Amino acid sequence: xxxxxxxxxxxxxxxxxxxxxxxxxxxxxxxxxxxxxxxxxxxxxxxxxxxxxxxxxxxxxxxxxxxxxxxxxxxxxxxxxxxxxxxxxxxxxxxxxxx
Length: 99
Prior knowledge:
Elements lengths: L2 E6 L3 E6 L4 E5 L4 H4 L3 H4 L3 E2 L3 E4 L4 E4 L12 H8 L5 H8 L5
Antiparallel strand pairs: 1-2, 2-3, 4-5, 5-6
């Protein structure tokens, strides 16, 4: 899949592929884009396999638009919005695999 067009709302990035199919992903996966201004978000370029924001040092692969977990689970949302918590340490102490 190749994304040809992107746009944003408050919480998501949307992409449209070469066949006109639309996809979306939560911006919680991309905190630099979540916190970016509209101007910063609009300063991107399409590459061979993804989208790159040079000034934000952020990349999103075209492939990721097709992932089943475009929206984080409740537990993932918790850790993505509480960066002060270390998910790896939490998982280790709980006897869980952090991946």
